Amino acid sequence: MPVLATFGPYPRSVPSSTMMGTMRTLISNGTVVTGSIAAEADVVIDGEKIVGVVAPGSAEGDFGRVIDATGRYVIPGGVDMHTHMELPVSGTSSSDTYETGTRAAAIGGTTTIVDYAGQTRGDTLEDGLAEWMARAQGNSFIDYGFHMMVTDVHEGTLSEFSEMMRAGVTTFKLFTAYPGVNLSDDRQILEAMQVAASIGATIMMHAENGIAIDLLRDEAIARGEVDPIYHLLTRPASMEAEAVHRVVALAEIAGCPLVIVHISSQDAFAEAVVARDRGLPVFAETCPQYLWLAQEDVPEGFEGAKFVCSPPLRRRGEGHQAALWSGISTGRVDAVATDHCPFTWEQKEAGRGDFRKIPNGLGVVEHRVDLVYQGVVEGWIPLTRWIDVIAETPAKISGLYPKKGTIAPGSDADVVVYNPAQSHVLSAETHHMNLDYSVFEGAEIGGTVETVLSRGDVIVDHSEFVGEPGRGRYLARGTNALVPEAVDR
Ligand SMILES: [Zn+2]
């Protein structure tokens, strides 16, 4: 059996009286949208749980709090399965702490993050997990889990995978990129996949051919091509597609479930689609930056450093964005996560004169729910696909469903009231991430997060953050619910 997330029993009926000491909340007159339906319904919450989804006006009993959602969408809190809060990178750390990053996430409608804990080369996975736990505990405003970045694959590390699973870390990330820092070679990747397959874990993969890319980077620098734009030009889409193809082949040999994280190009996405169409448990994650931003948006000169991330932004007019939107619409893109890894302008300055030294990453965690909703506004995707890729399927892949990722009796009362009649503009002046610029500056979004509940607590009210510090809880996760249990022998 797959290990399911801890999940209480469904109530037999909607309780009409308050349980001892818990607050009952009614969210009335809204349109409830999940990954599969959009329907007018009232949502009944008791304490930390949703206890009923009922026809409008039919909920009975007394409510300590009533939230009128007339004209609003009532959606599950977002699940961002790819973040890097205060990630240590070459002498500095990504600029959002668990406190600032999860507050920004909540204001943007995300109530769960799965952050990446990491192994320091030479240390154990256990050390890495303890380090990340210590950083998050007491500081996160929303619930959080961890993937484990494995950067030192050897017998000792692999023997720790089972222990990690018992601690609720059921996903392990490997890299074909960043030689000397994170890269695992094909033998190490295959070995890790074999171990993962044997215990029901899922491998998350950063797929770019880092060895070839390093040569292209060094050659560019030798030619005097030092500006940020050369970061983009030395990481061609073919090197992303090649790596996806290779790791899919390795995963097939190992019989291992695989998530290709942050897919940026049509080329790489096509490889993931082929794998999936052949029946392999290969899942595709992309990010809002790849859906909306392109090489053409990168300013000339060093200011382009703000847009430096890996994989890089691709060119417009080559079909990358249309392919990814179409993938969301047709269910071939499983998750839109952020790869949130912000660095302030001062931190980005480290790469002036050598693009190889620019810390990689963008600040996105606050805007993910909005930026995918904008795909609904502009006609790329239907409403239910929005919710599927921002909440439901990420929760399934992360082993958190149905505790997280949907609106149903028994699920955690992580609920967002979203107003499609109130537009707003993204800007560094108004965002809450610890970042002094925005790659989405001036983007207009045709909707607004108004109210956010996390396990029944209102933490965002009238778009203002009102959550209590340290209220977020660690989530021991189950295994990927979309992986078939049966094996073809
Ligand atoms: Zn990442």
Descriptors for this entry?
single chain; 489 residues; alpha/beta; eight-stranded parallel β-sheet; 28% helix; binds zinc ion
Task: Explain briefly what this protein structure is.
The protein is α/β, with parallel strands linked by helices.
The Cα radius of gyration reads: 22 Å
Q: What is the count of helical runs?
A: 14
As residue ranges, the low-confidence spans are: 1-10
Number of strands: 21
Task: Categorize the overall geometry.
Answer: globular
Which structural category do the helix and sheet elements fall into?
alpha/beta
Bound molecules: zinc ion
How would you characterize the largest beta sheet? 9 strands, mixed
Helical fraction equals 25-40%
The mean pLDDT is 95
Sheet-strand content, in percent, reads 15-25%
Terminal Cα span? 18 Å
Secondary-structure map:
Layout: E1 24-33, E2 38-46, E3 49-54, E4 65-68, E5 73-76, E6 78-83, E7 88-89, E8 92-93, H1 98-107, E9 110-118, H2 125-136, E10 143-149, H3 155-158, H4 161-166, E11 171-175, H5 186-199, E12 202-206, H6 210-222, H7 229-233, H8 237-254, E13 258-260, H9 266-277, E14 282-286, H10 288-292, H11 320-329, E15 335-336, H12 345-348, H13 368-377, H14 383-397, E16 415-419, E17 424-425, E18 444-445, E19 448-454, E20 457-461, E21 464-465
Give an account of the 3D structure.
The protein has 489 residues and is α/β, with parallel strands linked by helices. It contains 14 helices and 21 strands. The strands form 4 sheets. Strands 1, 2, 3, 4, 5, 16, 19, 20 and 21 form a 9-stranded mixed beta sheet that branches. The chain has an 8-stranded parallel beta sheet with strand order 6-9-10-11-12-13-14-15. The two termini are 18 Å apart. Residues 1-10 have low confidence and may be disordered. Bound molecules: zinc ion (ZN). Zinc ion binds next to loops.
